[in-house]
C-alpha cells in the first residue's frame, strides 16, 4: 500500500480542545521505529488529562494505545518486525517534545520495544486495548514492587491489594499478579465484582463501603504487605494505607499522591512514559525528565513476555466497547472518559470508520475480516431470490386494542438506515455484592431512559456483504433447519399447529418445578455462567442506556433490555407497535421488567443477611420472578400513566439445572459439544403477534412456557431477543459457536471467552438484518410459510447473551 503524504490525525490545540484534522503530516520513520497503518485505537484517561492540563504546544498528537499493520521498518529495531506484521503497543501520546508521537492518526511511528506482534487469538480491537496497560503493569508490579515475573518461580509470594481492579490497568494487573503466584484482593464497584473475579481476583471489596479497609485487613488476617493503586485518590490512599498489616510493606501508585499516612510503608510511583526510554518535558509532571534507558530495557523484555503470555491465552484483554466514527469518535470517547462515564471497559475505535476517510486507504481490521470469513455465510452470494408463487405480500396486522406487531413486514424500505456493527455494551450489573442492597422503586420520569446512565456511542465498521452473482436461494433450507431443530427440542411433538393460542399451554404439561422437586438428587454439581452480552439498537444513532449504581439493574438497547449475572439472565423486547400511541414507552417497560427481575435475584444474594431462606434461593422459580417484576413494572407504569408491553425470557441456574420462563418470541438455545440440546419456541397468537406482558395485556406470566434443562460443564447457553433468532438460523448459531470455540484454540469450552461468542452472533444477526435482498432468514421462512412475501433479514434491536457453563 502506498503511504499518502497527508492523513487524518487528532491534534491537541489549546487547553481542553482537541480536533481531528485531515491534513496532518505522516510521521518520519526513525531507526528504532516502524511505520504503522493503524486499524484500531483505544482511549485512556491520560489522553484527556494531557489535553486539559499538560500539553502546551498546540501541535501534539494525543493517543497511546494502537493496533495496526507494519508498513515500513526502521534500521535499528529493539524487537524485530517486518512489513505486514500485525502490531499493537504503547506510544507517548500528546508529546510536546515530538509531535510525530501519538496514536490517534492513520499512520504512526511506533517504537518496537513497547510493542508486540498481535497473536492470532487476539482481534485487532482487543490488541488495541493493551498498550498502556502492559507497560504500566510491568513498571508497577515488577520494576516497583518487585514481584517475581510470571514463569520464573522465584521470589516471594503473598497477597497483594490491587486497588481499582476494574480499571483497564487493574484487570491486567490482577492476571499478572496471579501468574506470579500471588493471591489478589481488589476493590471496585459491586457491579464489577464478577468482572474482576473472572480475571482471577480472589476477593473483591466495594471501595464505597465505609468498612472497606477493615474488611480487607480482616480477609488478609492483617498480613497484607503489597499494594498496587490504580486510582490514587485521597480515599484510595486511606483505604490502601489502612489495609496494610502492622508489619508495613510497599505501596506503588500510578498517580502522585500528596500525603501518605504511614512511615513503615515504602511509597513508589511509576509513570509509563519513562518506559519508552526518551527524555521529555512536562511542566505538570515537574519539568524535564531525563531518559531512563534501564526502564526501556525492562520494557523490551516485558513486552516479549507479554506477547508470549497473550499468545498462550494466559493474559486476556480488558472488556472493550467499539465506538462509532473512528478517529472522529475518539473525541467523543475522550469526553466520556473525562466525564467518568466509562466503567469496567475500554473504548476502542476503528480507524476505517472515520467519516470521509479516503476509500483508497484500507484501514479495515484484518481480525474482524478474518472472524467473518471463518463463519460460513448463510446468504446466497448473488441472484435475486425466486418470487414465491402465490404468495401475498405481508401487510402486518389489523389494528386491535393493543399494538402487537413485532415489526412491520410490509416493506423492506421500512428498515432503518444502513447501520453499523460493533456496539458492545459492557456487562450489566448483578454480581453477588457480598452485602444486601436495598433498592428503592425506580423514580419515574419520561426521560429516565435517556438520562438513566452513561450513554455510550453505538457503531463500528460496516461489514461488506459480497454480492457476486451465482446461486439461487434454496427456500426449503429454513424449513429443514427447523425440522432438524425439533429433534433436539425438549418440547413434545404436537399435532396442532403452533399458532393456536393454547398450543403451548397444552404442550407444556405439568410445571417442571413440580417434577424437579420430586426428583432432586442429593449430590449435584454447582455451576455458574461465564457470561457476556452483545447488543445493538435497530437505529444505531439511538443511544444505549446503561445502568447506574443507584438506578437500573438492566441495560437498555433500543427497545430491548437485558440483565446478566453469574446465575441468571434475562432479555425483554419492548413491542415496537406502541410507537404510534401517545404516552407509550415500550423501551421503558422492557427495561423496568428486566430491572425488577434482576432485583428479585439480587434479593437472594445474601440469604444470611436477609428475610430469605436457603429454600428460597434453591427453589427460585423464573416464572415467579417474572410475575414479581411484571407486578412492579405495571404498578410503576400505571402510576406514571405510561403504556407499553414486552416479550420476555428469564433463565436461572441452580446447581446443574437451568430453569427457564419464556413468554413471547425471545428465545434460548443450549449447545453441547457442537450440538443443540435445547431450543425454546416462540409463543405467538398469530404470525408476528407474540405473547406479551404489558399494561392491559391479555397474557400474563402464568402463560409463560417453563422449562428445566439439566446442564453440564462446557454447555453454552444463548439467550436472545427475536432480533437474533429471527435473523440467525439455529444451525448457524451452532456453527458460529463451533467456529469461535475452534478459533480460541482450545477443546475445553470453559475457557472460551463468551464475549467472542456473543459478538459473533450479534455480527451475524446484523449482517442478515441489514440485507434485504440476498439473506435468507428464519423470519423470511416463517413469513413464506404463512403465505406472505418477505425478503431478507429483519431489521430489529438485537440482544445476545452468552453464558458458558463453568
Ligand atoms: N502512571 C501511569 O503510568 C499510569 C498509567 C496508566 C493509567 N494511569 C492512571 O491510572 C488511572 C486508571 O487508568 P485506567 O485506564 O486503568 O482506568 P479506567 O479503565 O479508565 O478506569 C475506570 C474505572 O475506574 C474506577 N474508578 C473511577 N473512579 C474511582 C474512584 N474514585 N475510586 C475507585 N475507583 C474508581 C471505576 O471502577 P468501578 O466502575 O468499578 O467503580 C472505573 O471502572 C487513571 O487515573 C490513569 O490516568 C497512570
From TrEMBL:
Family matches, as PROSITE patterns: PPM_2
Name listed for the protein in its UniProt record: PPM-type phosphatase domain-containing protein
Record Pfam families: ADH_N (PF08240), ADH_zinc_N (PF00107), SpoIIE (PF07228)
Occurrences of domain PPM-type phosphatase (ranges): 543-805
Family annotation (SMART domains): PKS_ER, PP2C_SIG, PP2Cc
Chain residue ranges for the region called Disordered: 357-444
InterPro entries: ADH-like_C, ADH-like_N, ER, GroES-like_sf, NAD(P)-bd_dom_sf, PPM-type-like_dom_sf, PPM-type_phosphatase-like_dom, Trans-enoyl_RdTase-like
Coiled coil location: none
Biased composition (Low complexity): 400-419
Biased composition, class Polar residues, residue ranges: 357-374
UniProt-recorded Gene Ontology molecular function terms: oxidoreductase activity, acting on NAD(P)H
Amino acid at each position: 500500500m502506498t503511504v499518502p503524504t497527508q492523513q487524518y490525525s487528532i491534534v491537541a490545540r489549546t487547553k481542553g480542545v482537541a480536533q481531528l484534522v485531515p491534513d496532518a503530516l505522516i510521521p518520519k520513520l526513525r531507526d528504532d521505529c516502524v511505520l504503522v497503518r493503524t486499524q484500531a485505537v483505544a482511549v485512556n484517561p491520560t489522553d484527556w488529562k494531557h489535553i486539559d492540563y499538560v500539553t502546551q504546544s498546540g501541535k501534539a498528537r494525543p493517543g497511546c494505545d494502537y493496533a495496526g499493520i507494519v508498513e515500513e521498518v526502521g534500521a535499528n529495531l529493539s524487537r524485530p518486525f517486518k512489513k505486514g506484521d500485525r502490531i499493537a503497543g504503547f506510544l507517548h501520546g500528546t508529546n510536546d517534545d515530538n509531535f510525530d508521537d501519538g496514536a490517534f492518526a492513520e499512520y504512526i511511528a511506533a517504537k518496537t520495544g513497547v510493542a508486540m506482534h498481535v497473536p492470532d487469538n487476539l482481534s485487532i480491537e482487543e490488541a488495541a486495548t493493551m498498550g498502556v496497560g502492559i507497560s504500566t503493569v510491568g513498571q508497577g508490579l515488577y520494576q516497583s514492587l518487585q514481584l517475581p515475573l510470571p514463569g520464573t518461580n522465584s521470589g516471594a509470594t503473598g497477597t497483594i491489594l490491587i486497588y481499582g481492579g476494574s480499571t483497564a490497568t487493574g484487570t491486567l494487573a490482577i492476571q499478572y499478579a496471579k501468574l506470579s503466584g500471588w493471591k489478589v484482593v481488589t476493590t471496585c464497584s459491586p457491579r464489577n465484582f464478577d468482572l474482576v473475579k473472572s480475571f482471577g481476583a480472589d476477593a473483591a471489596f466495594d471501595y464505597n463501603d465505609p468498612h472497606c479497609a477493615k474488611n480487607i485487613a480482616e480477609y488478609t488476617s492483617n498480613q497484607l504487605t503489597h499494594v498496587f493503586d490504580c486510582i490514587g485518590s485521597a480515599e484510595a490512599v486511606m483505604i490502601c494505607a489502612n489495609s496494610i498489616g502492622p508489619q508495613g510493606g510497599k505501596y506503588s501508585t500510578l498517580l502522585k499522591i500528596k500525603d501518605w499516612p504511614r512511615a513503615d510503608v515504602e511509597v513508589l510511583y511509576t509513570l509509563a512514559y519513562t518506559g519508552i526510554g526518551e527524555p521529555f518535558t512536562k511542566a505538570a509532571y515537574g519539568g524535564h525528565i531525563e531518559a531512563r534507558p534501564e526502564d526501556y530495557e525492562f520494557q523490551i523484555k516485558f513486552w516479549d513476555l507479554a506477547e508470549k503470555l497473550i499468545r498462550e491465552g494466559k493474559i486476556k484483554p480488558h472488556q472493550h466497547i467499539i465506538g462509532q466514527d473512528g478517529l472522529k469518535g475518539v473525541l467523543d470517547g475522550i469526553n466520556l472518559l473525562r466525564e467518568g462515564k466509562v466503567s469496567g471497559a475500554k473504548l476502542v475505535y476503528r480507524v476505517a470508520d472515520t467519516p470521509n476517510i479516503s476509500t483508497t486507504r484500507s484501514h479495515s481490521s484484518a481480525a474482524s475480516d478474518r472472524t467473518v470469513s471463518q463463519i460460513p455465510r448463510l446468504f446466497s452470494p448473488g441472484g435475486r431470490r425466486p418470487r414465491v408463487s402465490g404468495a401475498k405480500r405481508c401487510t402486518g396486522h389489523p389494528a386491535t386494542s393493543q399494538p402487537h406487531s413485532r415489526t412491520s413486514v410490509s416493506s423492506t424500505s421500512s428498515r432503518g438506515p444502513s447501520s453499523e456493527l460493533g456496539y458492545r455494551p459492557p456487562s450489566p450489573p448483578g454480581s453477588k455484592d457480598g452485602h444486601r442492597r436495598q433498592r428503592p422503586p425506580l423514580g419515574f420520569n419520561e426521560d429516565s431512559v435517556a438520562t438513566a446512565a452513561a450513554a455510550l456511542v453505538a457503531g463500528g465498521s460496516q461489514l461488506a456483504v459480497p454480492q457476486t452473482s451465482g446461486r439461487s436461494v434454496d427456500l426449503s433450507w429454513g424449513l429443514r433447519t427447523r425440522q432438524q431443530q425439533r429433534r433436539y427440542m425438549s418440547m413434545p411433538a404436537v399435532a396442532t399447529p403452533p399458532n393456536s393460542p393454547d398450543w403451548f399451554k397444552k404442550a407444556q404439561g405439568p410445571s417442571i418445578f413440580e417434577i424437579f422437586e420430586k426428583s432432586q438428587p442429593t449430590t449435584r454439581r454447582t455451576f455458574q455462567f461465564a457470561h457476556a452480552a452483545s447488543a445493538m439498537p435497530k437505529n444505531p444513532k439511538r443511544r444505549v442506556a446503561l445502568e447506574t449504581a443507584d438506578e437500573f439493574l438492566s441495560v437498555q438497547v433500543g427497545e430491548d433490555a437485558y440483565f446478566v449475572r453469574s446465575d441468571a439472565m434475562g432479555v425483554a423486547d419492548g413491542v415496537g407497535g406502541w410507537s404510534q400511541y401517545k404516552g407509550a414507552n415500550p423501551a421503558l417497560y422492557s427495561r423496568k421488567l428486566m430491572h425488577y427481575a434482576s432485583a428479585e435475584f439480587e434479593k437472594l444474594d445474601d440469604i444470611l443477611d436477609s428475610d430469605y431462606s436457603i429454600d428460597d434461593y434453591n427453589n427460585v422459580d423464573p416464572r415467579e420472578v417474572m410475575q414479581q417484576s411484571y407486578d412492579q413494572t405495571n404498578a410503576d407504569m400505571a402510576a406514571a400513566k405510561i403504556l407499553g408491553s414486552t416479550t420476555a425470557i428469564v433463565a436461572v441456574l441452580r446447581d446443574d439445572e437451568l430453569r427457564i420462563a419464556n413468554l413471547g418470541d425471545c428465545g434460548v438455545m443450549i449447545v453441547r459439544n457442537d450440538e443443540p440440546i435445547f431450543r425454546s419456541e416462540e409463543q405467538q397468537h398469530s404470525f408476528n403477534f407474540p405473547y406479551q406482558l404489558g399494561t392491559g395485556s391479555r397474557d400474563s406470566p402464568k402463560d409463560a412456557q417453563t422449562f428445566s434443562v439439566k446442564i453440564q460443564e462446557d454447555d453454552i447457553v444463548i439467550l436472545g431477543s427475536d432480533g437474533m433468532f429471527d435473523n440467525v438460523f439455529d444451525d448457524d448459531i451452532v456453527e458460529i459457536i463451533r467456529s469461535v470455540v475452534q478459533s480460541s484454540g482450545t477443546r475445553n469450552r470453559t475457557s472460551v471467552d463468551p464475549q467472542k461468542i456473543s459478538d459473533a452472533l450479534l455480527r451475524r444477526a446484523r449482517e442478515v438484518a441489514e440485507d434485504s435482498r440476498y439473506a435468507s432468514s428464519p423470519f423470511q421462512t416463517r413469513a413464506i410459510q404463512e403465505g406472505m412475501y418477505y425478503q431478507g433479514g429483519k431489521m430489529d434491536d438485537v440482544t445476545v447473551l452468552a453464558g458458558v457453563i463453568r
